[in-house]
Write a structure and sequence with these properties.
This protein is mostly helical. The chain has helices spanning 5-15, 21-28, 35-49, 52-63. The protein is globular and about 30 Å long.
Length: 71
């Protein structure tokens, strides 16, 4: 999936805690509850788009405890 400008901005905004993970998922069109699965999808987006914020977030969510929502 090719990211548009709004989606790239949402990734940046989530890194700097300007939007919630729910808002990020909505903007990306990803309805994934499991943090690890969400992280893997972000890593796929990072690779396809050479997107650094998606890479950082993806790594964080892959290793995050699924019962904690602190990113």
């Amino acid at each position: 999936m090719k990211l548009n400008v709004e989606q790239e901005k949402a990734l940046e905004d989530h890194v700097f805690k300007r939007i919630s993970v729910g808002s990020l998922k909505k903007t990306l069109g990803l309805n994934i509850e499991n943090n690890q699965n969400f992280g893997f999808e972000l890593l796929k987006l990072a690779e396809a788009n050479k997107e650094e914020f998606a890479l950082m977030l993806g790594m964080g969510y892959v290793f995050m405890d699924n019962n904690v929502d602190y990113l």
